[in-house]
Amino acid sequence: MRICGIKLTHDGGIAVVEDGRLVFCIEQEKLDNNPRYQHIERLETVVAVLAENGLAPRDIDRFVIDGWDGEIQSEFQVLSKGSPITLNGAPYVERDAENPLTACQGSGLMLDNGVFSYESYPHVLGHVASAYCTSSFAKAEEPAFCLVWDGCIFPRLYYVEPSGVRFVGCLFPMIGHAYAAAGQHFGPYRQELRTGWNLGIAGKLMAYIALGVVHEHIMNVFQELYDYHFAGDTDLAFGYRNNSHSEDALLTAVHDFFDASASRLIPETPEDILASFHAFVERLLVRGMTSTLRGYSVPETRNLCIAGGCGLNIKWNSALRASGLFDAVWVPPFPNDSGSAIGAACCALAADNGFVHLDWSVYSGPNVSHGKVPPGWQSAACSLKELASVLADNKPVVFLAGRAELGPRALGGRSILAAATSPEMKDHLNKIKVREHFRPVAPICLEDRAPDMFDPGTPDPYMLFDHRTRSEWKEKIPAVVHLDGTARLQTVSRTSEHPIAELLMEYEKLTGISLLCNTSANLNGRGFFPDAAAACEWGCVDHVWCDGLLLTKTGPSQFEG
């Protein structure tokens, strides 16, 4: 059985699952230097992605489209050979809490001169399926809770077993986009005109709050206004909760909440306000989870999957893991909508066979190529041992290897790597990436050495939890230490077959240090570089390594540190 999952809206993607194995998942932002959060607007895109991977539409047994906005059903306007067509799909949230995995059947999917029928499942259930089916819990056939918190919904908790899924409840009445909206009212991303859903602010705020201090009196203001606007017995709060299916009404209510907060917090600095709001929401999350679980009859072993856009918040993930409420916590590398095409395909699997484990690899994105290298670059074969010497000489390298990683974070397949021993390196990387000075650069570290350098330093292959840099290492690896002493760590096993593992081991032999700086290889506001030529055209790093070939810019060096 070959299933093709399709995400048409933002973070558009196409995934193929064959007999329970993920064959590939191609996110649109990772093709042709496309913008972040790229939609699929033309159905020819689906045909082209299938063809690139040796398939035609007729080779697919089932097409599944991820659900989207709508209380009863969603509607997609797309183009087929230049002509507009309308496709209907499932809504954002399931309509039946007792039977969440209910499909909407559709027809009229026009692909390569053929017309195909398709299924569609609620968007939130795609998050549940992508998180649970990729977890070790599914592999062991163990049940798990699944928290889904997206921008336009309250945090929703589900209980998943191999045999099915049921909705447990909402933890509290605040949409996930409230975190990004806070940045539109306070701090460096403040905007007078606050329209639309800005998807790029939340991750930046997570870095910015390191400049601030959490104050209880600020949190008390947020608590009072949260009760009045969202959670209490006021007419305003009742109206807000009753409008939970209206995105515009929810977003307006959130901005009203922050307008009221701003009038009460005039003497406070924006960094303290945002740090305190982050802590306030973290407290809501842990308390809400505790309250919702209380009295819920579950097996002795408690597992948790986290999905939805808020699953990218490493500090909240760490708080839930440290709460003691769960024995194990899993966050996939694509908790946001970059995993929705996979989730759509997994929903179809679950509808037939239950929630079974998916055989998958994080390196299942588009393949890399050299492309046409522009003038002013020379190329030569380069082993990983030789590349380690370049890095040990304090020279950054764009590192492109095999298939791209899934999800929004560079995990050694589409990375800019550099030595972490120079304090100037973080500033240099932020400068060339056009990022603010307070943005962190992540460490990529051999897994067995991570506990020596970080607390807890536990395996974290997808960069989804918070770790504190141990004091004795802060001066040794200053480029990867965030302003608050933490690090967004990625760990790599020595037994990994990916080239990044061998490179880290060769670098360790040369320097005695088992980690490197790691930041994403991309143009500002765009997805990963699709090929070496794109990295050369960017030109901000003098060395580009692509599957055994080192391209070196001729002329003055970009960085001397």
Supply database-style keywords.
single chain, 561 residues, alpha+beta, 8-stranded mixed beta sheet, 6-stranded mixed beta sheet, 16 helices, 24 strands
Would you tell me the structural class of the helices and strands? alpha+beta
Apparent shape: globular
Computed over alpha carbons, the radius of gyration is 23 Å
Beginning-to-end CA distance, first to last residue: 54 Å
SS element count, helices? 16
**Arithmetic mean pLDDT:** 95
List low-pLDDT spans.
none
Strand order of the largest sheet: 14-24-23-15-16-22-17-21
Major sheet attributes: 8 strands, mixed
Question: What's the count of strands?
Answer: 24
Strand percentage, roughly? 15-25%
How much helical structure, as a percent, in the residues? 25-40%
What is this structure, in a nutshell?
The chain contains 16 helices and 24 strands.
Describe this structure in words.
The protein is α+β, with helices and mostly antiparallel strands. It contains 16 helices and 24 strands. The protein is globular, with a radius of gyration of 23 Å. The model has no long low-confidence stretch (mean pLDDT 95).
